[in-house]
Amino acid sequence: MPDIETGREPTLFSAIITPHRSLSSRGFLLVMLLVGGSSFAAGLVFYLIGAWPVVGFLGLDVLLVYWAFRANYRAAAAFEEVTVTASELRLRKVSHRGQTAEWTLNPVWTTLDRETHEDFGLLQLYLVSRGKRVPVAAFLAPKERESFATALSAALGEAKRGPTRTLH
User: Fold this and answer.
1) CATH 1.25.40 fits 13-20+78-161, yes or no
2) Is the pLDDT of residue 93 over 80?
3) Closest among 159, 151, 155 to 17, alpha carbons compared
4) CA dist., res. 35 & res. 6, Å (int)
5) Where are the domains of the chain?
6) 144 contacts 17 by C-beta, under 8 angstroms
7) Per-residue confidence (pLDDT) for residue 163, from 0 to 100
């Protein structure tokens, strides 16, 4: 039942899923200082024994480690947004480059398809509706994906039951 003041339906479920990054910016700085410091120390030793060309390769290693971390952090800008109301399920995926893909599904006709592995748990989760099969929660670990699937399934069940009224 739409809210009288706003004209919008109440949200039954809402989640924003982002890729996990275990290394904070402070941790990144610490790792880069350790890699740079050890490369500098090793480079100094090689320079003093006359193997000065090695110094350039050690500097290149530091640059490649830095580049790899920066690429990893850029990829962390991607996210998925899932919202369920009584009349629609909205999935919006935004890539790390800002490209957006959106799906609007009817929650009454939407089911969850799960690919599970006996040892690893829930590997893939899909929203299925009227011939469409869209992967969701790909950023999550199997246990987190299972928890997400349980909550989303409960919201879909509530949407399928329809609006309920409470008497005051």
Assistant:
1) no
2) yes
3) 151
4) 55
5) 13-20+78-161, 25-75
6) no
7) 66
